[in-house]
Amino acid sequence: MTTTLFLGGARSGKSRLALTAAERHPGPLAYLATAEAHDDEMVDRIDRHQAERSDRWRTVECPLALPEAIAGVADGAILVDCLTLWLSNLMLGGHGVAARSADLLAAIAATDRALVIVTNEVGMGIVPDHPLGRAFRDEAGRLNQAIAAAVDTSWFVVAGLVLPLRPYEPA
């Protein structure tokens, strides 16, 4: 099956496009949700995302256990939304990012399900003024590079438009 990455900034349209891409696959669909509702704004955001999904979708809450959730989907296509929230959960919880990222890459390689992954590009803005912000930006960049190298297709999303991303091949 195919693996696809949608990478973009906040409110770029990447989640909507990823949802549409996943829904092109027949059969049941698994939505692997990494967000946690710690405040009212996040509760509203999660509610809006849930309202966008049809009855074909089964939601799996996996704020930390994303590799295990991917491995646990036995049928249908999978949508992961999103890697950067998962990374935030790992970092704020003091979990080993390198080891868990390796677990995630292994789960992606092992699945025979169609897999659509959403992640944020956070390295195109200003340098964060706080050490945790800089560490997050750096870890997100490393994770996004590793995931992009592991999937079949990557798309960069800006203003709801997509640009295909391809590996650089020097002449």
What is the CATH level 1 assignment?
A: Alpha Beta
CATH level-4 homologous superfamily:
P-loop containing nucleotide triphosphate hydrolases
Coarse structural class: alpha/beta
Rg from alpha-carbon coordinates:
15 Å
Counting DSSP E segments of at least 2 residues, the number of strands comes to: 7
Strand content: 15-25%
What percent of residues adopt helix (DSSP H or I)?
Answer: 40-55%
Number of domains: 1
Helix and strand string, N-terminal first?
EHEHEHEHHEHEE
Q: Could you tell me how far the N terminus lies from the C terminus, measured between alpha carbons in angstroms? A: 31 Å
CATH architecture: 3-Layer(aba) Sandwich
- State mean pLDDT (0 to 100 scale): 94
Sheet with most strands: 7 strands, mixed
Topology record:
Elements (H helix, E strand, L loop, with lengths): L2 E6 L5 H10 L5 E5 L6 H12 L5 E5 L4 H7 L4 E5 L1 H10 L4 H14 L4 E6 L10 H20 L2 E6 L2 E5 L6
Parallel strand pairs: 1-5, 1-6, 2-3, 2-4, 4-5
Antiparallel strand pairs: 6-7
Helix pairs in contact: 3-5, 4-6, 5-6
Family: Belongs to the CobU/CobP family.
GO molecular function: adenosylcobinamide kinase activity; cobinamide phosphate guanylyltransferase activity
InterPro entries: CobU/CobP, P-loop_NTPase
